[in-house]
Structure formats: structure tokens, C-alpha cells
Amino acid sequence: MDLGSNGANCGAGIVVAPLSTGEVAAVARICHQNGIAIVPQGGKTGLVGGSVSRPG
User: Fold this and answer.
1) Domain that holds residue 32
2) Domain total of the chain
3) pLDDT, tens digit, for every residue of 1-56?
4) Looking at the domain assignment, is residue 33 inside a domain?
5) Separation of alpha carbons 28 and 42, rounded Å
6) How far apart are CA 56 and CA 1, in angstroms?
């Protein structure tokens, strides 16, 4: 079960999938400049919901 992709518990305002480290840096810079929190995701193999985002 992948809790992070369930619409009922994924309150993210936006989801990005950068394809390079440069894109990761650009996203992080924009988020930092605008006070936007980042919830990083990896392979999403955890089963305890440790990286589930909150609304906003």
C-alpha cells in the first residue's frame, strides 16, 4: 500500500518530479524564497506513513 499517493492523505499543494540535480536545486530555491515547505520522497517503500504531507 502506498499511502502517499492516496488522495485522502496527500495534502500537498503541488507534486514535482525533477529529472536532474539542477532541477532539484531550482525547486528547492523557489520553495525557500517563498517559504514553502518541502516533503521529500524517495522510493516510498516505508509502511508507516513517515513522509505523508499535510495540507498546504
Assistant:
1) 13-40
2) 1
3) 444 455 555 667 788 889 999 999 999 999 999 998 888 877 666 666 666 666 65
4) yes
5) 16
6) 23
- Rounded Cα–Cα distance for residues 56 and 41 (Å): 16
Side chain identity, residue 12: A
Cell of 6: 492516496
Confidence at residue 2, expressed as pLDDT on a 0 to 100 scale: 47
C-alpha pair distances (Å), 49 with each of 3, 10, 15, 16, 56: 7, 11, 17, 19, 17
The answer as to whether 4 is a domain residue is no
Which among 39, 37, 34, 36 is positioned nearest to 53, based on CA atoms?
A: 39
Rg (CA), the chain: 12
